[in-house]
Amino acid sequence: MDIKFKDVDINNWWDNSEESVWGDKLIQHNTNNKDKKMMIKKNEKYFQYSSLNVFIVTSFVLTVKILLAIGKVFHLSYNAVNIIVWYMIIPLAWAAILDYKLHKLILSPMWLLLCVGIIILQRKQFNQFCDTMFRLSQIFIASFGNYYKWSVIICLLIPVMITAVLLLC
After folding, report:
1. CB 84 within 8 A of CB 76
2. Are the beta carbons of 127 and 77 closer than 8 angstroms?
3. Which of 29, 34, 36, 76 has its CA 20 to 30 A from that of 111?
């Protein structure tokens, strides 16, 4: 199943290079406009975004660049880094916070054991596993509407709020 989003095939947009992700088909800046608001191309029309939407696009781009840098350091694909961070490391941090709050070491070792078990079981096909999980995540996020906006909400804002609640309670 191929999903098209803003003239980019989101199943393959990470495959080539960083430039293919942020090329002129995806994000453009209107330099002729006095306020220089960011413009996004969609269906051959340009829509100006408010400062909230500029925040969303900037957060999205910054997150992608950070994940790409982590991937380069550890020789992992973008999809693998994405799955490891959002499906393994962040929930492990939440489990560790809960263990600390409960004064018991139960949840984080169980989660770590589950993650290590998945990695061991999928070791020969780990990249394929991560590609499949990433594709399913894309489909889920795209089902809400604007992929940028909902990626930032689901993958950044909600985890930050959950972490804040866990730390403050």
Report:
1. yes
2. yes
3. 76
What torsion do the CA atoms of 131, 27, 7, 4 make, to the nearest 10 degrees?
40
Rounded Cα distance between 150 and 143, Å, is 9
Is 148 within 8 Å of 57 (Cβ atoms)? Answer: yes
Predicted structure pTM score: 0.68
The secondary structure of residue 125, as a DSSP letter, is G
Type of residue at 166: L
Q: Nearest-CA neighbor of 95 among 162, 44, 50?
A: 162
**Distance (Å, whole) CA 74 – CA 81:** 9
Residue 47, classed as helix, strand or coil, is strand
Give 66's contacts (C-beta < 8 A, 6+ positions apart).
none
Closest CA to 30 of 46, 45, 19, 7: 46
Number of alpha carbons in the 13 Å side-chain half-sphere of residue 90 = 18
